[in-house]
Amino acid sequence: MKKSIAVIILLLQASSASAGMWDDVCDYVSGMWNDTTQYVSGWFADDSQKAADDTLPENIAGKWDKLTDTLNDALTLRDKQETLPNSAWFGEDKVSNSAKINALLDRALVILSDGNAGTARSEAVKLRARLTALRSELDTLRNSRINAPESTYLFWRDTKSKVDAKISQAEHEISRIEHELTAVNSRVTDELSKLGITLTDEQADILINSVTGEDILHNTVIFENVKAVTAKLEELSQQDTNNPEIVKRYAGMYLVLNDILIHTQEELVRKMDGDYKPKLSDIRTEAEALRKEALSRSNNRAYTSSQRKSFALNAKSNAATIQAAKLYGQLLDAQKLSLMDSIKSLRLNRDLAENTYRTVRSSGELRGLIHSGLNTIDAVMKLAMPELKIFEGGNLRAEFDEINRRLKR
Fold first, then answer.
1. Is the Cα torsion angle 56, 58, 59, 61 positive or negative in sign?
2. What whole-number distance in Å separates Cα of residue 333 and Cα of residue 319?
3. Is 46 helix (H, G, I), strand (E, B) or coil?
4. CA 87, CA 90: separation in Å to the nearest integer?
5. Quick check: 250 and 363 in contact, CB under 8 A?
6. How far apart are CA 145 and CA 160, in angstroms?
7. 85: CB partners within 8 A, 6+ apart
8. Residue 392: predicted pLDDT
């Protein structure tokens, strides 16, 4: 402020000053302006520029401050949890404090969920939905062409030639999206390959389109980001080993990261048991009832030969649905088994993390803890990706896609 006033005074006196003095004033003002613009620009600088770090994924480096602040806030509340009553009429208790902790963990998850594999998968889901809509539109156009006139004076009616043009356009768009979908699937495969997970194109297609695909990719991205953050914490913890509070802080953040990993795995298990499996069971029960009914009527002489043949085809179709549902159930079971193994490993690692956080005996122990944690994360990432069976035959794959649609309703 004093410098600003001095500059104003100098400017007011400039008319009577010598040319040399005026140059000095200009130089001073110019330097002051550059300092000010640099300072103000710092207020609006993008976080990713301030937090650039080659050892971290770009999306995590750009939000490093937000992530670590959130982890520390969650850690503070976690420490507070031990001293709060189980319930209270007034003031905070364990229940209200847990809600705050969960909100912070969700906030951290938003940052840790950002990754190329998940983004590519979301694009693939949108493209497939667009493909389904276009095919439905194409079917409508083909039906409308049947009674479309060759020519008409009614501007709201389409002639056969106009319908043909729309059909051609829809077919072209379908072909374009199919090629784009293939490219996006390859991107997912490439991104997973970078994470050390190798899938064939067919396996990637099953993963992308299965009802649990989004959750599995979501978890995979989180694991990779947590691994990168953990490695950075290991590095930072060695830069000031003489400060117990700093060592404790990094140990605590590592503990919270363990809680986040366990939470994401347990949430998917709950979703499988409480949502996907009950729906899948309903689909199989309905298909079995329809199969038995169709099979019975296919042998009933009261129906014509053509009708009995149609009933027999319906029975086969429902049998295919049952088979696809059975394979889908095996896929979910394999995924759940992998998840349970992952959770078991993570909980053991978390026990060590919590014990170390409580004691923080030495920086050497913290380094050993975090380094072993990285090995655990690597091992769990491999467990979390189950074997993806390929649905042989077009009929089973079509049934698989239909089951997906019904499970997502």
1. positive
2. 21
3. coil
4. 9
5. no
6. 6
7. 93, 94
8. 58
Longest dimension (CA), the chain: 119
What would the DSSP string read from start to end of 106-166?
A: HHHHHHHT--HHHHHHHHHHHHHHHHHHHHHHHHHHHHHHHT--SS-S-TTSPPHHHHHHH
CA angle at residue 123 from 127 to 185, to 5 degrees? 85
The structure's pTM equals 0.64
Give the model's pLDDT for residue 302. 92
Residues with Cβ within 8 Å of residue 86, at least 6 apart in sequence: 93, 94, 95
> Token digits for 187?
């991107």
Ranges of residues in the chain with a pLDDT under 70 are 1-54, 118, 240-243, 360-397
Residue 218: Cβ within 10 Å count = 22
- Burial (Cβ within 10 Å: 0-12, 13-18, ≥19) of residue 90: exposed
d(CA 10, CA 26): 10
pLDDT for 20 equals: 43
Per the listing, tokens 């027999």 go with: 312
